[in-house]
Design brief:
This protein is mainly beta. It is built from one helix and 16 strands.
Length: 212
């Protein structure tokens, strides 16, 4: 593909609101990138770490919200080996859940993820959708092993709180504000690239987008 096409084609896809489908390590079905979904704001917490760069914003398809999630987690690597703990967060997107909702059909919104670990089982709001979060983060360890973000909790619109199957280093920070609008509909993660022989931290911070 020539350089002009490389520039023009993405602009055409954005202008027509094309959805781009692909496979994700974070799920067993289709991952959907939505180029044109508007948001009404985003929520953050204040205890994220500072290593790495922000990835692409990824949104749930129109008409759906984050009603469940899965984490990519590296287990304890033992003494003298490098730990990274939380590596990725995948949002599971459906219409707002009811007690009879199925968990078979869903889409996934997933920003940048780290290179290590395995994906955990999905956790779902019993009703409603995700509206706020809390992050467990290890502070800077100086000459010891840094892991940055370790785990996450989400609160559903029904009031249910789910804690992920992450690691236990660090401490829980304050809860984010509650999403403006109806609930969480997108994600953007801050991830440090592999550092070779140096200390890896992988996922450092996250922000979630909110839709009406």
């Amino acid at each position: 593909m020539n350089p002009v096409t490389n520039i023009i084609l993405p602009l055409l896809l954005l202008s027509f609101g094309v959805r781009i489908r692909g496979q994700s390590a974070g799920d067993n079905g289709n991952r959907t990138r939505v180029a044109d979904r508007p948001s009404v704001g985003f929520i953050t917490v204040g205890n994220g770490q500072y290593w790495g760069t922000w990835g692409n914003r990824e949104m749930c398809p129109l008409g759906t919200y984050a009603t469940g999630f899965s984490l990519k987690v590296e287990s304890n690597q033992g003494i003298f080996r490098d730990d990274t703990a939380l590596n990725g967060i995948a949002l599971r997107c459906t219409a707002p859940r009811t007690p009879s909702s199925s968990t078979i059909n869903y889409s996934t919104a997933q920003s940048t993820s780290g290179s290590w670990g395995q994906w955990t089982q999905n956790r779902w709001c019993p009703t409603g959708q995700l509206v706020a979060f809390q992050l467990r983060v290890e502070s800077y360890q100086w000459l010891s092993d840094d892991t940055a973000a370790n785990n996450i909790r989400f609160r559903c619109s029904s009031g249910t709180v789910w804690e992920g199957d992450g690691m236990t280093w660090g401490t829980w920070g304050s809860w984010s504000p509650t999403c403006p609008g109806r609930g969480i509909c997108g994600i953007e993660t801050k991830v440090e690239a592999p550092q070779g022989p140096l200390d890896d931290t992988s996922l450092n911070d996250v922000r979630f987008y909110c839709c009406s």
